């Protein structure tokens, strides 16, 4: 057994995390920053942080992930990171020539109290930042929140640094993308385009982390929200924040700063969340929903109806990030599946409220927990107490899946051992169909492999 | 092809032009062209330039990830925010094989104190102690290692005091590592800290020697992709007893009796030479450098081990094994060689792999045009003879150097000075390592701590047939149409050590160099004349 020391006996823990369902802030900030066109993320801390984050993102995307570091040493930790950051800014603009450097902090620079705002200001006034170029920053102390918090903080800093009100309002809708894949961002944009709506999505990692092989390494790939687009978000008609944990702060700041009204939705994962997304787009833009979208929806409903018998009452354990887990749970419920165990290392009351609302009536026996020590060890112990039919989460789930012989559907971050997540969406009606196909394949492949020979079915 | 004819000195000049003046001045000393004679002085193990895009990681990564990561019966508890433990969770693919289904194996678990802001403000020692108690209650391990991350050192949490207190309370071996990420300039400092801690708290605790006539320790082998399994197979076949391996497929129990071996052989010099030196002083165990990367190199290393034991039976057995293994290797190389010979490789990785793997490439008839380490020191490039001349800077000075003395009861010189001298005359090379440059051809570009920019320029100008580095470089290089072989993770292949490993490597390199898709990058309409629009208006 891979996790041979895990038993069903739960011992209350107050200090120890085992097999976390989260990581720390900076990787989220790095990922978000890659969604700005021509941006080089910069990690203000020890080299290891940058190296680990680049490695994790690279393994997840199988794509180049460029980022730089302030390379703190012991001396830097004593005297402060200003000299390192200034040198980094000079070196980066000279050698790599980005449009923007997006600086995020680490537990190290936060603990010693580096004032990154002041250092970036100094860089500007002292000529380290060439004309027409930008340095933006956000604080991402690793000991607060999770990787999702870091993502949200970098997205908020995009608004802080760029969003501006001009004299001419723009007939466009802002889409603040919560943490999802480039494929999901592409699909959410496709739906709005299908409705004939002009949108600005930020961040936008499509065409950044899913690039073609051309024989040339494009250091700054064609995708990403551009600076003029980010500036223009202050003139937009409305903002849709998709995923409250990762996008609400940015939308709130945009309203405060530029008076752009917003509503917060879930990421459009599954039937109902996509319904809400389409309705919100339609309301905000006053554009009708085209028949082609209604047909897409109908195909998803058709698939759920046809496949219902294979999904009904199946017990599911999930782990990952709240913005994904909430609509995913809702989707599973819409197919009459039973999400019985759910954990997320990301803290915050909203998760509990949302899960209570979803599960209280339909699956009263469901156990869910988020924040500190809501980890995969606990999830595994719950599974040991009473098994499930399906596990949904990132690649670390495979160790539980193998030990307990549960089919695993990979959704979340990081996915290190399979591909497809960056290319095929799980959002929208089509994404929902993709997700059902994955779930069915996982369940039925196991059934076909393990059922008695006389029970093998040719047809579903 | 003519692609190698660009003068490397001119390449260097062009590359340095891009940098700000101060940066260029520093990089100038880290890049040199080997003249094929005595290795010239290179600047290594110095700070990376902020913003330059280095491949290096941190001290914690070298300590927890590299040296202690592959040991299965210890609980490695990371004291810090969640990320440090999360990123070191199973990502180095050290394989391990517990002897029974019940044997301890904590390697698939990730343990952390998940420090929160209140712990940063008020201190994290109480939480750490509680976490140690909880991990003990749940898992009942025999040893716990506590690893410090950046904030721990800054807020003054004393992991060593906590370890001592908990050791007392729980009655098991518990020890701390001051391996904060900011110490040193790379992973290398972490290796040293890990070596020191193993020496202080683990090695020498159990005097029960395993049975066997020829007892050795294998140092600096981490069982990536099963390398250690292959070496264990070979050693067993030869009749050698492996007392302990630092640290591929290892246990703390093995470390505790490592001092009962009669010879230490070192694979990765950079990460573990400290333990070898300290064990020689403390226990009288001599060491020499070996290389099991490459079939010929493996054969040579085995012969030296046999030579050391001065036993005709062992020597004969080793020759038999080599003959048997080489027959299979020869067959493999004959198939692959015509497709690989003449090709060009570049290697930028680690603290020894960029040297060792040149062996395998040369067996394939491939030349290494350029190479360098990520975290090597001058001795890894120029040979250990330069150690006395290496300047100790502030970043190295803060890494503890243990004062080791001969153990009162356990010190037992395995060979007399005369015997050592005689064996040296036969080529055993005790305590020696000549470094990477001694094995490189005239005109080779040696680049320490290569930057992303330098890497792109190397590829752009020299178009190697294969580039070897790590995950962060993998897809940048492949976007340029050049296959990249990961030499940290082996691209999830391997083993590459020993004889079967060499065969795997030959086949994998053949596969990569001759991948069909590299020839299909351009669409037909990008290479053929443009088709006129007929339906267009």
From TrEMBL, chain B:
The enzyme's E.C. designation: 1.18.6.1
Gene Ontology CC terms, in alphabetical order: molybdenum-iron nitrogenase complex
Cofactor: [8Fe-7S] cluster; [7Fe-Mo-9S-C-homocitryl] cluster
Annotated catalysed reactions: N2 + 8 reduced [2Fe-2S]-[ferredoxin] + 16 ATP + 16 H2O = H2 + 8 oxidized [2Fe-2S]-[ferredoxin] + 2 NH4(+) + 16 ADP + 16 phosphate + 6 H(+)
Family named by the database record: Belongs to the NifD/NifK/NifE/NifN family.
Enzyme class: oxidoreductase
Keyword vocabulary terms for this entry: ATP-binding, Iron, Iron-sulfur, Metal-binding, Molybdenum, Nitrogen fixation, Nucleotide-binding, Oxidoreductase
Subunit structure comment from the entry: Tetramer of two alpha and two beta chains. Forms complex with the iron protein (nitrogenase component 2).
Organism: Arcticibacter svalbardensis MN12-7
InterPro entries membership: Nase/OxRdtase_comp1 (IPR000510), Nase_comp1_asu (IPR010143), Nase_comp1_CS (IPR000318), Nase_Mo-Fe_asu (IPR005972)
Protein name: Nitrogenase protein alpha chain
Domain named Nitrogenase/oxidoreductase component: residues: 58-513
Domain of life of the native organism: Bacteria
Primary role: This molybdenum-iron protein is part of the nitrogenase complex that catalyzes the key enzymatic reactions in nitrogen fixation.
Keyword Metal-binding annotated: yes
Molecular function via GO: ATP binding; iron-sulfur cluster binding; metal ion binding; nitrogenase activity
Pfam families: Oxidored_nitro
Database matches in PROSITE patterns: NITROGENASE_1_1, NITROGENASE_1_2
Keyword RNA-binding assigned: no
């Amino acid at each position: 057994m891979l996790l041979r020391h895990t038993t069903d006996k739960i011992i209350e823990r107050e200090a120890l995390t085992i097999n976390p369902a989260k990581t720390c802030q900076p990787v989220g900030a790095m990922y978000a920053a890659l969604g700005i066109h021509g941006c080089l993320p910069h990690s203000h801390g020890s080299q290891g942080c940058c190296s680990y984050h680049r490695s994790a993102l690279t393994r997840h995307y199988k794509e180049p992930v460029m980022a730089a570091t302030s390379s703190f040493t012991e001396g830097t930790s004593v005297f402060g990171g200003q000299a390192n950051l200034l040198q980094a800014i000079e070196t980066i603009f000279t050698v790599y020539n980005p449009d923007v450097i997006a600086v995020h902090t680490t537990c190290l620079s936060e603990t010693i109290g580096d004032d990154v705002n002041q250092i970036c200001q100094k860089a500007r006034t002292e000529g380290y930042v060439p004309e027409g170029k930008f340095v933006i920053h956000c604080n991402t102390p690793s000991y607060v929140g999770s990787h999702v918090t870091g993502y949200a903080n970098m997205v908020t800093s995009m608004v802080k640094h760029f969003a501006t009100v001009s004299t001419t309002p723009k007939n466009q809708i802002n889409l603040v993308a919560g943490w999802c894949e480039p494929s999901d961002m592409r699909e959410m944009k496709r739906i709005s385009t299908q409705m004939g709506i002009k949108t600005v999505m930020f961040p936008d990692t499509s065409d950044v982390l899913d690039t073609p092989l051309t024989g040339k390494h494009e250091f700054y790939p064609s995708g990403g929200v551009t600076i003029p687009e980010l500036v223009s978000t202050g003139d937009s008609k409305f903002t849709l924040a998709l995923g409250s944990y990762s996008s609400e702060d940015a939308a709130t700041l945009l309203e405060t700063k530029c008076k752009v009204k917003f509503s917060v939705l879930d990421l459009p994962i599954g039937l109902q969340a996509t319904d809400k997304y389409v309705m919100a787009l339609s309301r905000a833009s006053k554009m009708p929903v085209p028949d082609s979208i209604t047909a897409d929806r109908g195909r998803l409903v058709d698939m759920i109806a046809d496949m219902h018998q294979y999904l009904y009452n199946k017990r599911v354990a999930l782990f990952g990030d709240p913005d994904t887990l909430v609509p995913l749970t809702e989707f599973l419920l819409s197919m009459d599946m039973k999400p019985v165990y759910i954990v997320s290392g990301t803290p915050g009351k909203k998760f509990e409220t949302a899960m209570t609302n979803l599960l209280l009536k339909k699956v009263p026996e469901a156990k869910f927990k988020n924040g500190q020590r809501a980890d995969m060890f606990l999830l595994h112990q719950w599974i040991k107490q009473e098994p499930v039919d399906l596990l949904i989460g990132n690649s670390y789930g495979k160790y539980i899946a193998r030990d307990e012989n549960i089919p695993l559907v990979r959704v979340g971050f990081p996915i290190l051992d399979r591909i497809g997540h960056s290319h095929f969406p799980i959002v929208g009606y089509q994404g929902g169909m993709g997700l059902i196909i994955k779930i069915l394949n996982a369940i039925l492949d196991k059934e076909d492999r393990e059922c008695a020979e006389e029970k093998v079915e040719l047809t579903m | 092809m003519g692609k190698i004819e660009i003068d490397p000195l001119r390449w260097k000049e062009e590359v340095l032009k891009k940098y700000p003046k101060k940066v260029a001045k520093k990089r100038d000393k880290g890049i040199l062209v080997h003249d094929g004679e005595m290795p010239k002085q290179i600047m290594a193990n110095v700070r990376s330039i902020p913003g330059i895009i280095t491949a290096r990681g941190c001290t914690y990564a070298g300590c927890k990830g590299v040296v202690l990561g592959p040991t299965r019966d210890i609980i490695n508890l990371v004291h810090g925010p969640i990320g440090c433990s999360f990123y070191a969770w199973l990502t180095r693919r050290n394989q391990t094989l517990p002897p029974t289904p019940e044997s301890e194996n904590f390697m698939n678990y990730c343990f952390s104190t998940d420090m929160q802001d209140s712990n940063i403000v008020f201190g994290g020692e109480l939480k750490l102690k509680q976490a140690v108690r909880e991990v003990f209650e749940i898992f009942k391990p025999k040893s716990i290692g506590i690893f410090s991350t950046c904030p721990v050192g800054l807020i003054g949490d004393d992991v060593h005091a906590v370890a001592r207190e908990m050791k007392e309370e729980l009655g098991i071996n518990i020890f701390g590592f001051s391996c904060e990420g900011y110490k040193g300039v790379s992973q290398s400092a972490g290796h040293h800290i890990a070596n020191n801690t193993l020496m202080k708290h683990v090695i020498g605790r159990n005097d029960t020697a395993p049975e066997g006539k020829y007892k050795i320790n294998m140092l600096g082998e981490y069982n990536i992709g099963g390398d250690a399994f292959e070496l264990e197979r070979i050693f067993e076949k030869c009749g050698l007893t492996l007392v302990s391996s630092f640290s591929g497929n290892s246990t703390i129990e093995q470390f505790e009796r490592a001092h009962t071996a009669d010879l230490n052989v070192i694979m990765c010099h950079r990460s573990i030479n400290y333990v070898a030196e300290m064990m020689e002083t403390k226990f009288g165990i001599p060491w020499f450098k070996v290389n099991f990367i490459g079939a010929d190199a493996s054969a040579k290393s085995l012969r030296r081990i046999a030579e050391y034991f001065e036993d005709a039976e062992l020597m004969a057995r080793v020759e038999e094994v080599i003959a048997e293994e080489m027959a299979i290797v020869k067959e493999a190389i004959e198939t692959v060689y015509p497709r690989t010979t003449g090709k060009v490789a570049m290697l930028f990785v680690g603290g020894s792999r960029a040297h060792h793997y040149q062996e395998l490439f040369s067996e394939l008839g491939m030349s290494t045009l350029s190479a360098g380490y990520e975290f090597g020191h001058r001795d890894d490039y120029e040979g250990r003879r330069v150690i006395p001349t290496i300047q100790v800077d502030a970043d190295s000075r803060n890494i503890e150097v243990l004062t080791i003395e001969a153990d009162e009861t356990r010190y037992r010189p395995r060979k007399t000075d005369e015997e050592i001298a005689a064996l040296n005359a036969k080529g055993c090379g005790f305590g020696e390592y000549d470094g990477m440059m001694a094995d490189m051809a005239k005109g080779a570009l040696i680049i320490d701590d290569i930057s992303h920019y330098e890497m792109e320029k190397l590829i752009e100008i020299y178009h190697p047939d294969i580039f070897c580095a790590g995950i962060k470089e993998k897809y940048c290089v492949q976007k340029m149409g050049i296959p990249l072989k990961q030499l940290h993770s082996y691209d999830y292949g391997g083993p590459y050590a020993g004889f079967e490993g060499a065969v795997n490597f030959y086949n994998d390199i053949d596969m990569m160099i001759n991948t069909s898709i590299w020839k299909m990058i351009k669409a037909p309409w990008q290479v053929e004349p443009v088709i006129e629009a007929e339906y267009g208006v």
